[in-house]
Each structure stands twice: as structure tokens, then as C-alpha cells.
Amino acid sequence: MNTVIRCLSGCVLCYAMAGPFAAAQAQSYPSKPIRMVIPYPPGGATDLMGRLFQSRLTQSLGQTVIVDNRGGATGMIGTRNVAQSAPDGYSILFTVGTDMAISRVLSKDAPVDPVTELSPIIAAVASVSCIAAGSSAPVGSLTELIAYAKANPGKLTYGTPGIGSSPHLNGEKLKLLGVELLHVPFKGSGPSVTALVAGQIDLMIGNLATALANARSGKVKVLAMTHGRRYEGMPEIPSIVEALPGGDMPQGWYGFFGPARIPKPIVARLNGEILKLLGDRDMKARIEEATFSVMGGTPEEFGELVRQSLDVYAKVVQAAGVKGE
To answer: Looking at per-residue confidence, does 307 or 23 come out higher?
Structure first.
């Protein structure tokens, strides 16, 4: 009996000490460089936006934030790496939450459950996605794309950041509407736009930010926005629904996570610093210039967004009959 009492007393003491220890840990945080994992190769939209935050966080936190690109498996390799890291705030993740949610929906055996294995820190930005064509593609407008694909099912190729990504799901939804394209998965949006410019694929479905530089130089042509309305930054480009009702997909969001069980004071510190960045006039202008929009909010609100995304994409995946790898 005395042994049991001693054990219970020890547990209570440890629990009582955990709060003050976590608070003290947060006060000294960060005391060394922070590793920010971007689970896609360099050059894509996630990488470009992540590096914008990386440079600003290095200044605001007073410690170097190091980018660690770990591409593959539609972001799951890098995501798993963070999920398995020590929950001390020195390994954080910046990723496309929509792709992560879809990967979880596609497989019950997905490498990471974002609800139970990650700590939501903040929803940072939302993206604008598009369909872009290479200069050698046999189509030059949205109406031409739809007509050609319906007359030649599966002949046009389209690249995406990978199987189970939101652009892939967008392509599968187009197929349901009679626009059948041949999917070519890459390890990120950067490699897919590189292949588009090189003429290795006809089309790319992905983030507008990734395609924009090449669109401005005339190497690719943006045919349509994949959301339900035109993008105010490029009002001359139609929305997919203008020629194909029901062909739109939800807007993608990007955010910061850590491993599960990070002390709440550290999550609060990171959330607060990123919120300050999102409220900075110059930072906001840089984000909008890259065709993203500012989000923000609390960790709790971000966690709810993750759960809502899982529900939304579960319905889309079931309707389109998409299968994971």
C-alpha cells in the first residue's frame, strides 16, 4: 500500500512541476536555432512562402530559423519527420494543410494524423490555384481546353505536386465532369512547373504563385482559376466555373505545426510572433504580391480548420472515387 501511495505521490508531484517547467522553458525559448521543415522541394509555392516567413522569424525570434526541404509522398515525408521530432519547439512544419488533409482522407494508414500527431500553431496564408498551359500545348484558353479534352480523353497531360494533392483532386473532379486529363505526379509544384516550361507536360494544376513568373515571361499561359470566382489580382483570367459549372475546388491554406504535445506557452509564443508578421504592412504586401492572402487566428481556431478540412475533402474524395497510392 505504501508503495502505491509513494507512486501516486510521485505522479502528482511530477504533474504539479510540469506546468512551471513548461512556463520556464517557454520564457527561455528559443535558445538555439529552429528547424523549419518544408515538406516539398525548393522552388514551389510552399517553399517560396515558407522562406518569406523564415527570414522574418529569424529576426523576430532572435535565433536562426533554418529551412529543411524534405519533399516526397505529397508532403508526408517531411510531415512525418516533424511529427516524430522532440516536442520542444525546435522542429516546426510549414505545409499545405489541404494536401495533408487529403492524404489523411485517402488512407486510414496515412503516415501522420494531423489531429492527434501534430500541434496546430497558426493558419498563415490562403492560396490561389490555377490551370496553366505550356507554350507547346495544343490549347490556349479554357474553352479550348475543355473542348479538346472532351474530344481527346486522356491525351492532355497535367502535372501536380503529387498523388493525393488538392490539384490532383481537382483534376479528378474535372474527369467527373467529362474533362479527362492524364495525371503526371511530381514531388512538388516547383518540379511540375519546370516540366511544363520544358514541354514535358501540357498543363499544370497548382498554385498561381508557382506559375506566375513564367506566365509573366510568356513561357506558360494561365487558362483559369480553380476557385469559384475570378482572382482580383488577375481579373482577366476566368474562373473554371464560367465554362464548367461545378469544376471548382476549395481554396488551399498553408500553416505552421509542431509535433504533438509542444508546451502551450511555446505554441503561444510562435503563434504571437507569426501574428505580428501577418499584421506587418510590408509583410502583408509581400504575401499579396505572391498571390496569397493573410489568414491568422488562434491555435484552437486552426485546429478546428484542420478538422473541417478533413470533413470537406472526405466528401470530395468519395464523390470522385480517388484512390491513394
So the answer is: 307
Q: Where are the domains of the chain?
A: 25-127+251-320, 129-242
pLDDT band at 20 (very low <50, low <70, confident <90, very high): low
Task: Give which of 182, 178, 184 is closest to 147, Cα–Cα.
Answer: 178
Q: Would you state the pLDDT for residue 309?
A: 85
Categorise residue 154: left if φ over 0, alpha if ψ from -120 to 50, beta otherwise.
left
Of 127, 131, 130, 132, which is closest to residue 215 (Cα–Cα)? Answer: 132
List the grid coordinates of 99. Answer: 494536401
Q: Which residue in this structure is represented by grid cell 505529397?
A: 74
Q: What band does 23 get if pLDDT is binned at 50, 70 and 90?
A: low
Distance CA 15, CA 8 (A): 11
Amino acid at 169: L
CATH architecture, domain 25-127+251-320: 3-Layer(aba) Sandwich (3.40)
d(CA 214, CA 140): 15
pLDDT score, position 273 = 97
Look up residue 278 and give its three cell numbers: 501577418
The verdict on pTM exceeding 0.70 is yes
Q: Please compute the mean of the pLDDT values over residues 102-122 and round it to a whole number.
A: 86
Instruction: Examine domains 25-127+251-320 and 129-242 and report if their fold is the same.
Output: yes
What CATH code would you report for 129-242?
Answer: 3.40.190.10
Cβ neighbours, 10 Å, residue 58: 16
- The residue type of 171 is G
Q: Compute the average pLDDT of residues 98-121.
A: 85
